[in-house]
Amino acid sequence: MRVLLTGSAGFIGTAVGELLETDGHEVVRVDVMLPMAHGVAEPPTGTHRLDVRDATSWVELLRGVDAVCHQAAVVGAGVEVGDLPAYAGHNDLGTAALLAAMHRAGVHRLVLASSMVVYGEGRYRCAEHGDRTPPPREVAALAAGDFDNHCPTCDRPLEWAPVDEDARLDPRSSYAASKVAQEHYTSAWVRQAGARAVALRYHNVYGPGMPRDTPYSGVAALFRSSLERGEPPQVFEDGGQVRDFVHVSDVARANLAALRAVAGGDPPSYAAYNVASGSPVRILDVATLVAEGTGRDIAPVVTGGYRLGDVRHVVASPDRATAELGFTATVRPEEGLPAFATAPLRR
Question: Which pTM was predicted?
Answer without folding.
Answer: 0.93
